[in-house]
Amino acid sequence: MPETKLKVELPDGSELELESGATGADAAAAIGPGLAKAALALKVDGELRDLSAPLAGGETIEIVTDRSPEALELVRHDAAHVLAEAVLDIWPGAKISIGPPIESGFYYDIEFPEGEAPGPEDLERIEERMREHISADEPFERRELPVAEAVEHFREEGQDYKVELIEDLQRDEGASTVTLYRNGAFEDLCRGPHGPSTGRIGAFKLTSLAGAYWRGDETRQMLTRVYGTAFLDRKALAAHLEMLEQAKERDHRKLGPELDLFRFRPESPGMPFWLPNGSVLLELMQEEVRGQLRKRGYREIRTPEVLDEELWHRSGHWDNYKENMFFVESEDRRFALKPMNCPGACLVFGSTRHSYRELPLRLAEFGKVFRNEREGVLHGLLRVRSFTQDDAHVYCTEDQVTGECVDIIEAIDELYARFGFDDVRLELSTRPQKSIGSAEQWERAEAALRGALESAGRDYQLNPGDGAFYGPKIDFHVTDALGRSWQLGTCQLDFFMPERFELGYTGADNAEHRPVMIHRALLGSMERFAGILIEHHGGRLPLWLAPVQATVLPVADRHNDAASEIAAELREAGLRVGIDERSESVGRKIRDAELAKAPYMLVVGDREQEAGVVSVRSHEGGDLGQMKPGELAARLAAESR
RNA sequence: GCCCGGGUAGCACAAUUGGUAGUGCACCGACCUUGUAAGUCGGACAGUGCGGGUUCGAGUCCCGCCCCGGGCUCCA
Question: What is the DSSP-derived secondary structure letter of residue A470?
Fold first, then answer.
């Protein structure tokens, strides 16, 4: 007989002796009753398993509890199963497909019987049913089944999507068996693992309904996706819902019109109308970018928005981007609105001869581009049909690439910090399957970008195969005040375009050479960046970006003249100042200024008029007492830096 | 493009089983002359996204279109 004991190693390096045939749950119990109770799953040599999984001995195990980082994913996956269970209770004819945990919760894609698709009001009904299953604390039970039996099983139940999944698994991964998990009367095809029972789902909520194609393929069946979120306890759920509420409050689509920054009109879906305040904001952002351009030797160009269709054949956009372009016709000539600025920049470069002495030649353009995005994907300022890129194209030699990219990384760091984003993440994307150029060329290009990242001393994430077909790239991401991540700037190498446009420069050897082109954008889209800024700051932009930095509030009509003088003096000092001359009470004017998110309010009444001062109130600090206009201007100027 | 939900005054919302479209804020006018988040009174403003249909009668029901919102692999 083999030995009756087995040994496993624990994360702290100690050994645990167990009876042979012991499971993860036994291991947890052997360590302590508290842990046994808290245990959700097991990690065997770093791989997540069910608690009920038998141990072989010799492996390193870790008990996953509600405090483990994996716990959320586990519980959400459990919740997805309970969701499917509840749906099948209510709609026995429903066909379920997949139901994974996702970043913010979980979902399940389901085909409901014809004409019985649920509405938002049905979510509560499903939730109620789910709660019943959770309080019943149904254990998750795993079993393994040969593929043929599993297919038979799901075919009998009319679960066609499961049958398809299993058949695909067999074909693509050579699976001979699949695993099923049962909770209550419900059994689902699932890789697992799962928590011990449904009772461990601390708190959940179904959040929304959406359509989703089976396997994301728009030629296939449209399913109903039920979204939900789950947490280990009520408090965490409440915090998450609170965060969503906050995000709603900060939504730039709500704040933009409220603060008179921009608005949308049906006359031009996906193209914003910028109001005076919003124009000021864009202008300030642009000035900040221009500061970087001046500092780093970029020169600004402007190229046409409308260009002959032929150009887009030459640039390759016709083949790759035609569906997203707008076209216009005039006098039998077909033109396209530019979706990108690079061809224009290449025409500028190519229209004169260049010497190696001019390189790197850095041409920047605040270029307005037009992209005919499908209607359904438009989303406020974040996904539009026209926007302004703070674009630039650097023409240089291969040797110069690293230096240029370091410079771009620095520019982005400085710029993002200035706008209040400290957490910048870099990603390097390398050669994709479909690409042009030689292997050596790619190797050198990727090495140049890696070199830039290293000499800038930056950590980065590698995305192999995620580059553009014409060259590798570095993307820049920031995290906003609500913890959401946004991709902003980009720095891409391009071997393709200089080739296509037959660009050249005369080298020191008096021969013609092909320059390398770097596309780079710092903020990306000015409009999109403005939208992200608005959400990041909750509409309360930092003083230097506030379209109106201070509002002068005369106490009574007789103070209007004095107030105008103050306003004029502050404007003279370069501040953006408004004035509220309505015959309203001070309280009212303050309220309205606060709602307009004015950083400073300057009250002028008898006392101030006499002393030649203003009473200053800031949103943050409340009443700051009296100041002379000059003092105030200096203070605000200092704060704006 | 597709699925689900929505569209009533500038904005937020209301309108029994189909039965004369309302309220608040904003706006305009008058009064008040105001001291750190809403002063008082009065007035004007939509024919219900657009087009058709059913009906004695449609914001409510039906059809088509437009726009807005949530989504459309984070793959058992």
Answer: T
- Catalytic residue, candidates A129, A250, A338, A389: A389
Q: Which nucleotide minimizes the distance between its C1' and the CA of A610?
A: B35
Q: Other C-beta atoms within 10 Å of A197: how many?
A: 18
Q: How confident is the model over A555-603, as pLDDT tens digits?
A: 999 999 999 999 999 999 999 999 999 999 999 999 999 999 999 999 9
CB proximity A166–strand B (7 Å threshold): yes
The model scores a pTM over 0.80: yes
Let me know if A473 is a catalytic residue.
Answer: yes
Residue A1 pLDDT class (50, 70, 90 cuts): very low
Domain annotation for chain A: domains and CATH numbers: 5-64 (3.10.20.30), 71-241 (3.30.980.10), 263-303+341-535 (3.30.930.10), 548-640 (3.40.50.800)
Please confirm, yes or no, whether A393 is among the known catalytic residues: yes
Residue A202 has pLDDT above 80, yes or no: yes
pLDDT band of A481, cuts 50, 70, 90 = confident
- Residue-wise pLDDT tens digits, A106-164: 999 999 887 777 877 788 889 999 999 999 999 999 999 999 999 999 999 999 999 99
The protein residue nearest B75 (Cα–C1') is A215
- A450 an active-site residue? no
Q: What is the pLDDT of residue A277?
A: 93
Helix (H, G, I), strand (E, B) or coil at A310: helix
Give which of A597, A576, A590 is closest to A623, Cα–Cα: A590
Which residue is closest, via its CA, to the C1' of B3? A211
Residue with tokens 């008990």: A63
Q: What share of chain A is helix, strand, coil (3-state, %, to 5)?
A: 40, 30, 30
pLDDT tens-place string over residues A429-449:
988 887 778 888 889 889 999
- pLDDT tens track for A217-250: 888 888 999 999 999 989 999 888 888 888 888 8
> Is the C-beta of residue A188 closer than 7 Å to nucleic acid chain B?
yes
How far, in Å, CA of A231 to CA of A241, rounded?
A: 11
Distance CA A292, CA A286 (A): 10
Q: How far apart are CA A450 and CA A455, in angstroms?
A: 9
Residue A334 annotated among the catalytic residues of the structure: no
Q: Which of A78, A391, A407, A580 is catalytic?
A: A391
pLDDT of A407 higher than 90: yes
HEC per residue, A124-176:
HHHHHHHHHHHHCCCECEEEEEEHHHHHHHHHHCCCHHHHHHHHHHHHHHCCC
- Name the token pair of A502: 């037959």
Smallest Cα–Cα separation from A177: which of A136, A144, A226, A209? Answer: A144
- Asked if A580 contacts A552 with a C-beta cutoff of 8 angstroms, the reply is yes
Q: What ipTM was estimated for this complex?
A: 0.88
With 0-12 / 13-18 / 19 or more C-beta atoms within 10 angstroms meaning exposed / middle / buried, residue A275 is middle
> Which nucleotides of strand B come closer than 7 angstroms to any CB of the protein?
1-5, 11, 31-39, 66-76
Residues 528-547 in A having a C-beta less than 7 A from any atom of strand B are none
List residues bridging with A41 in a β-sheet: A64
For residue A116, the Cα-to-chain-centroid distance in whole angstroms is 34
- What is the widest separation between alpha-carbon atoms in chain A? 104
